[in-house]
Specification:
2 copies of one chain form a homodimer. The first copy, chain A, is an alpha+beta fold. Chain A contains 7 helices and 6 strands. Chain A binds a DNA duplex (25 and 25 nucleotides) through helix 5.
Chain lengths: 147, 147
DNA sequence: GTAATTGCAAATACTTTGCCACGTA
DNA sequence: TACGTGGCAAAGTATTTGCAATTAC
């Protein structure tokens, strides 16, 4: 099993969750796609479609989000997106408003200092941020895909 | 009439939209609240509740977003949020995950340079970003409001 | 006069829950 | 054994659309 999957399942165990097949497949699926995914995408993905019901995936996502193992994101679509939180790793995203493609941005995030200032000035706890860039990708701009 | 409302309605007219009472009230409502609002909030706000149907507000929001007068935001809630785009003004937001309060952040946005790099490297068109900070506000942390 | 806009009601889309069966610890 | 989990189906919430009537230009 992929070491990050193993490590994440271990975090789930620490948090008091039971080690089920569905849990492992969900984490593996999120990890191998390496981008935020919707409930519908997850529930119909190869690993999970055969494994369990959509309601189960939903409840798993809820539990994992509650324990800080995954995070729920907005991203403008009607459906919510979920992304695996790997300790020490932070991602911002670049999203095409035409075809809906989503990719993680590699560049170092320029927001940490502002985040620190906000933490100090406002007294907010458990502060984190989300940064997304939206635009029309070159393919869509060329008309290769309709939007 | 508030000059920003007037100016924004004028932009709508330029874009080919008709000047209706509902349009003016919608823009005035968004402006006076000065924070992103949901369709439900807007449709039930004092100015709009008496003015028109929720479907009308929905379609107005759609049209305005299509013409770049307002923008649709994610913000983690199930409902979509909408914010007025005033030329030359950019806001990032600080959101309490416990009570749901939303406030605009005054500090200059630290993302412009990265945005420029992304524009150049990826060839994305019409690029813009959204930056939100989430956390638990001091009131909620003190237990004044349940979460 | 003509096309955009609106209201009402019905249809969708996505999420969330109830209840009882099942599996992990 | 006990309690977290899972399946199925039904309910809930927010969005989106059809169509005939109305209104801005």
């Amino acid at each position: 099993m992929n070491p990050v999957v193993k490590q994440t399942v271990e975090r789930c165990r620490m948090a008091g969750l039971r080690r089920t097949k569905a849990l492992e497949e969900l984490i593996a699926t999120l990890l191998e796609h390496d981008r935020p995914m919707t409930l519908a995408e997850l529930a119909s993905s190869k690993r999970l479609a055969e494994q369990c019901d959509k309601a189960t995936v939903f409840r798993l996502l809820q539990r994992l989000a509650g324990h800080g193992i995954i995070r729920r994101l907005g991203l403008h679509e009607r459906a919510a997106y979920f992304t695996l939180l790997v300790p020490g790793k932070h991602s911002d995203y670049l999203i095409c408003t035409s075809c809906g493609s989503i990719e993680a941005i590699q560049a170092p995030c320029p927001v940490h200092q502002l985040e620190e200032e906000i933490r100090v000035k406002t007294g907010f706890r458990n502060l984190y941020h989300e940064l997304e860039f939206f635009g029309v990708c070159p393919k869509c701009a060329r008309g290769e895909r309709a939007g």
